[in-house]
Structure formats: structure tokens, C-alpha cells
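Structure ticket #2291
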Amino acid sequence: MSKVERKGKPEEGTALRRGWTTGACATAATKAALAALFTGAFPDPVSITLPKGETPAFALAREELAEGTAAAAIIKDAGDDPDVTHGATIISTVRKGAAGSGIVFRAGEGVGMVTKPGLPIAAGEPAINPVPRAMMRDVVETLCRKHNEAADIEITIAVPGGGEMAKHTWNPRLGIVGGISILGTTGIVHPFSCSAWIHSIHRGIDVCRANGLTHAIAATGSTSEDAANARYNLPLEALLDMGDFAGGLLKYLRNHPIDRLTLAGGFAKFTKLAQGAMDLHSGRSQVDMNWLAERARELGLPDDDVTSIRSANTALEALEITSGRIDLPTHIAKQAREQAIAILRGAPVEVEVLIFSRDGMLLGKAGHFDG
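Resolution: structure written out below.
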């Protein structure tokens, strides 16, 4: 499961370019390779039909035709989306299988294997998701009918360097080993939609539940994740890289609950959650200093300091103003917990909130579990 990785947002005012999923690239490469296997010629560019009817064309980066096999490669263009697989080479190698074997998918170099339950692909299968599989089956069956061939075809998808790319995705946590996943539901990557990250959060919850885990930690970053898990020593499958997407996590838990959830993060992000924000990214939500100043007033902070908080530049500056006099982090943790429970809408999930400093020191907590 891919997780977006920032590669530099386009300048303000410029149009954002769409890109193509690994699944779309794998499908196009498969179509080109199979056409060459049957005819001896590679279509270049090669066009495919996406699930919603679009018909993009892809230029081939590599062509190989040998006795009984053919391979084609496409360079993935993610457009302006901050995708870790942008620029990856997606290779499909096809060969005829035994009579009656049907269409079989194999994982080549850099494509992961599923090892745990809870994902849409069974354990022991290559990490090629259902929609890309369906797209590849469609092009194989169409070409086989056209050339009067049996649809007994083995497809091996490879992504050189995919093992290293996978370290920057959720795959190690999800029990996908050896490489990246071949993903996509529409074939199109929409720039900065953040859908890949939220999709990965959902699959992380699925894996957690499928492995019988009843306590998960959802953290905004690695420092808070490490600090929270130092209290509980949970397995990797129980660690959900929530990032900024508290809403995406909590809404999914409404219908897919886990008994106990520890939310871990920094003071600024959880202040935004306490205010009711569900997307905690600095570009999509802001700390309301007036709101924060009122919370400090409720705790008894003198008026002069309350005024200073109203004009503070950052949440950290506001926190420093209150240091040693009021317990603002615990107050914020309680309100963030209340917001999380409200988003869950009665789902049977016990919620704990832990707020950490940038060096991993616990600042405030609410709804405590025994750690």
C-alpha cells in the first residue's frame, strides 16, 4: 500500500498534472507484452481503457521478445502527486501457461508478497490489488479472443528498486514483504488528493483487526509513535501511521472498530483536533489562537498572558507562555479526546490521547490506559 511522500508541491497558480497508478502502468505493459507475444510487434504507444472509460496511451520504456516470453516496461508518471513510486519502471513479463491454468499473477523483483490476513488479496499472493488484476485480466482475455488463443497466461510484474521504495510505504506494517504493491481503483492519480495515505490507514486497520489485535496506536509522526509504543510495546501491525488524517482514521473505525485506540501526537496538531479539525495538515487547518487563549483563560491564566497567546505566532509559543503555571496540554488532550469520540459516533472504541513534545516527552494525556 503506497503512502505519499512529498516531492515538492508545484508553484501556486500552476495547474496540477494528473498521473497514472502503478496498476494502470502494469496493465498497459501487460497489453503491450502480450500483443508482442502473439504478433511479434510491440504497440508503442499502447492504449488501455480505465474503469471509468478514459483511454490513455503509454510510451514503452523497454521491449524484450524471446522464445515463449515477452516483456514491456513503462515509466510511472504520477503527475504532480507526491508519490514515492513516481519515476518507477513497471515491467510486465508474459508467457503462455499450462492448458487450463487460467490467468496467473506472479511477483517479480520489487513487488511485494502478502503474508498476513486482512487485505483484499489473500496471504501467499503477490501484492497486486483487485482492480489492477481485473484490468489486466480484461486486456488478456480480449487479446486472447482476438488471436484465438487460450487465456492461460502467466503475468509477472516487476518494479526494479521496489524493495527500497516499499520502506517508505505502509507495506512493512501490513505484512507485505519484498516490495511495493500494484495499486489503483480508477487508474488515475489525482494530485495531492491524499487518498493513497487514507487508503493505507484503512488497510492498516483491516490488518490490525484480522490479526486479532485489540489495541492500536495512531500517531501523527514517528516521534510520537515511538514514544507511545514505549509505553505499550505493541506489534508493528498495531501501529497506524495516521499522519494528518485523523478524520480518515476515525470515520473508518466507526464501522471497523478496534477495542482500544491510542491517539499520539504533538501539541499543535492535537489542538487542531480539539478545535474540531479532522485534517491536521498545516496547509488545511490552523490553530485558532483566540480559541486557545480562551482555553488558557478557563484554566486561570492571567489576562496579560491570555492576551500574549492571542498574538502568538505558533502553538509552541503559546505553550511556552503557559509553561509551569497551567496544564494546558492535558486540557487540550481531554478536548481532543472528546472530539475523537464524537467523530466515532458511538462506535465501541475506547480512546486515549497522548500529547508529546518534539523530543518525545509526555506533555498531557486523557482517557488513560495502563501502560
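Closing remark: The chain has two domains: 19-189, 213-366.
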